[in-house]
Amino acid sequence: MLGHPLGLLANKVTASFTILVVFLVSRVAFYQRGLKVVGHFPGLRVPFHPYTLIGGVLLPTTRWNPGFLFTWLHRSTLYKKFTTDTISVVPFLLGPSSFWTSNLEVIRQVATSGQNSSFIKPTIGSNALLLWGMNLASANGETWRKHRRILGPAFNNKLYEHVFDESVKLYRDMIQSEGWVEKVEVPVFQEYTLKFALLMIEICGFGIPFNWSDSREAGTGSATLQGAIRLVSKSYLWATFVPWVMGLPFAKFRRMRAGYEELMNFMKSQVAERKVMVQKSKAEDFELGKDLFTMLVQANEDEAAKYKLDNQELVRRTALVRDG
Fold first, then answer.
1. What's the pLDDT tens digit per position in 196-246?
2. What is the pTM of this model?
3. Pairing verdict, β 86-94 and 43-48
4. Is the CATH number of domain 148-323 1.10.630.10?
5. Count of Cβ atoms closer than 10 Å to residue 194 Cβ
6. Reading across the β-sheet that carries 86-94, which strands appear in turn?
7. Pick from 224, 236, 232: which is nearest to 199 by CA?
8. Which residues contact 97 (CB under 8 A, 6 or more apart)?
9. What are the CA-CA distances from residue 63 to residues 48, 207, 230 (Å)?
10. Residue range 205-219, pLDDT digits in tens
11. Domains of the chain by residue range
């Protein structure tokens, strides 16, 4: 009878040791495959990939765990450490092997999906861009080419000139409205930069002539367009990575839902209005607005039926530019 408990203990120890050995062997094989994937390219060798839940969220950023924001936290030293503008990240416990680069030409080749591109954007890497649906930044192949035909003509010198002129006007309006002509006192600078960015989106993105002190309402809802964009910007990560929280019966999430609905309804109504304006300009020969939304609709209306985007796709184009 005395040997029975000892035998059970020995069996448990043997089983645990076997499991540990199998796990270690599997991780060694996993690590070797990861090195092979990146061609043994120099870079970081870490337990967890920075974009996994464990490595990016649950564990703190340390010397052995780079964390979700490692490219920002080590922006001045990351690539200098390896004397190259491209590095590999190979985890030996969890996550995919990957390349990270600061080379603009490499980024251009990977980010675009032209006819001769060898890179396919994986869904897992573009989930954050799919909140409003498929778009240029996340599309591949023929879908990418279709969207590129419409978006390309809308980004032209006329738009860039418009953005520059409106930025100067808004800056002068801000200085005058805030009383900064003689003295500037800014307790929270981010509040002003955020407001400036939102107003530029409204002016140059949607063609709405806001002033610095404006608070007019957009659409038929109770929130202003600026307020809706602010809500969407602040809640974007919630809606992307944990969308189920948007349905919770709390005031914070109700406001988020209201912001999304307000903005979506506004953009849908604007697509219909701009289409009418484009057709009217062709018949009466007058110049359309220089804002991005109008140019997108105009480029779409000028395109052959085969390549035209529907109303929802036009909304997605504008939403992506706004969120970006």
1. 888 888 888 888 877 888 654 444 344 466 777 777 777 777 776 677 777
2. 0.58
3. parallel
4. yes
5. 15
6. 43-48, 86-94, 98-101
7. 224
8. 33, 34, 35, 37, 38, 88, 89, 90, 91
9. 12, 48, 36
10. 888 877 888 654 444
11. 36-111, 148-323
